[in-house]
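Sequence, please.
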């Protein structure tokens, strides 16, 4: 009997059959994901053509980086794509947390209050804001913070938000993706409703959206529905897996000017910042991003459907609409989280031979287990899984530069779970 390539790579015939059966039911969803990729691909292309991207944009600069046409043009491409007046897109923004920290600290002054109307923000922002004591937090600089929890059903608590907005409230931060929480991610339409409500209460309130993992999942972005700033990481969706570093902030001219002054120095702003040799990757990655996001979404939908069939709680559900590329799966135990991560790691093109073990990382409160065999260190648009080791022992699965790779990764997680006796294939 012929042995399939999956079987040659460690997948049992029973797991292979199970996965094939799951996939049969997903074809209409995959077609919708492909349609979205097509729309977003054209959006990116249009922005590149309009701004006359040329070979000169890839040359790069050194030193101060004055008149860096590659950097300046890329910022125009991002601004056009996100329909904003301005954008800051830089390799000097070291990660998503850095981009968010720049956006917040540039636009909040001593005496101002920051509001999160959507519950707890992403773990690393706790130290940026000063929810957890940290040197150089916003709190240390006299910026206060207030948080309104989501309703038990995951919706916005409009009455509590109304009560929380005071004359001091300067900026509201909305996190689109759930991050390490078991709550739904918000659609762009939902974010738009919340922004309209906030601006109805206080027209001069600034709204920043943490857009990490959300880019190109829908046809619109939060900046299309009133956000003053949208912020994200280039080693997630918009870098398309090719950007080796970077972050972006797109928004109004006045917000972005302040961000540029905060990132470089007052008076200098956006005019300096040599792009060295990374520009080609930033452009090419942005060009690829819509189809890479589609591959990641297919992987997420496949994982949801497979783990639902295995009897685990998944968020979003296998049939639910998607607003980011993250799939969380409540695995219920430390052992199962580790087994899942072993599957993802074993599927990787890089470091497939290493075994994930839990460890503490800066910025996060609990030990974290991670699987990532990425070309770009820590890149989570590449196939990866991680999660803090705390109840309900949910693993967060994301990425996949190609759909076949995402499929293989999910298949190997099922294999690991089944082999370790942590999951049973349905009859
Ligand atoms: C990843 C992420 C961040 C932080 O990004 P880093 O690049 O890890 O610093 C912030 N918010 C959300 C929702 C994220 O997913």
């Amino acid at each position: 009997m012929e042995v399939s390539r999956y079987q040659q790579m460690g997948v049992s015939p029973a797991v292979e059959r199970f996965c094939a059966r799951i996939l049969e039911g997903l074809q209409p969803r995959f077609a919708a994901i492909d349609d979205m990729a097509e729309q977003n691909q054209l959006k990116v292309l249009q922005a590149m053509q309009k701004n006359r991207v040329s070979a000169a944009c890839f040359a790069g600069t050194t030193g101060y980086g004055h008149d860096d046409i590659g950097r300046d043009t890329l910022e125009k491409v991002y601004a056009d794509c996100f329909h904003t007046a301005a954008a800051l897109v830089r390799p000097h923004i070291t990660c998503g947390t850095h981009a968010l920290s720049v956006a917040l600290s540039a636009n909040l002054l001593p005496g101002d209050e920051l509001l999160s109307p959507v519950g707890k923000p992403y773990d690393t922002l706790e130290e940026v804001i000063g929810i957890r004591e940290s040197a150089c937090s916003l709190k240390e600089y006299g910026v206060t913070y207030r948080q309104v929890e989501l309703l038990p059903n995951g919706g916005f608590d409009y009455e509590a938000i109304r009560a929380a907005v005071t004359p001091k409230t300067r900026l509201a931060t909305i996190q689109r993706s759930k991050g390490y929480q078991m709550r739904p991610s918000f659609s762009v339409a939902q974010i738009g409703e919340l922004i309209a409500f906030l601006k109805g209460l206080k027209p001069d309130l600034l709204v920043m959206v943490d857009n990490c993992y959300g880019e190109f999942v829908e046809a619109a972005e939060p900046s299309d529905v009133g956000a003053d700033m949208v912020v994200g990481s280039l080693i997630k969706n918009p870098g398309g897996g090719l950007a080796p570093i970077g972050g972006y902030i797109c928004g109004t001219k006045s917000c972005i000017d302040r961000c540029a002054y905060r990132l470089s120095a007052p008076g200098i702003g956006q005019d300096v910042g040599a792009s060295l040799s990374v520009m080609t990757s930033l452009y090419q990655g942005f060009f690829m991003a819509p189809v890479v996001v589609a591959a990641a979404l297919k992987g997420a939908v496949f994982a949801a459907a497979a783990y639902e069939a295995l009897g685990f709680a998944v968020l979003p559900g296998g049939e639910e609409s998607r607003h980011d590329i993250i799939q969380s799966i409540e695995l219920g135990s430390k052992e199962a989280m580790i087994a899942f991560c072993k599957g993802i790691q074993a599927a990787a093109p890089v470091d497939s031979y290493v075994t994930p073990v839990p460890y503490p990382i800066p910025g996060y409160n609990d030990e974290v287990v991670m699987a990532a065999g990425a070309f770009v260190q820590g890149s989570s648009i590449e196939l990866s899984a991680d999660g803090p080791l705390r109840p309900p022992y949910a693993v967060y699965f994301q990425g996949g530069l190609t759909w076949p790779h995402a499929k293989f990764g999910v298949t190997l997680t099922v294999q690991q779970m089944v082999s370790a006796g942590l999951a049973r294939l349905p009859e």
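The radius of gyration is 21 Å.
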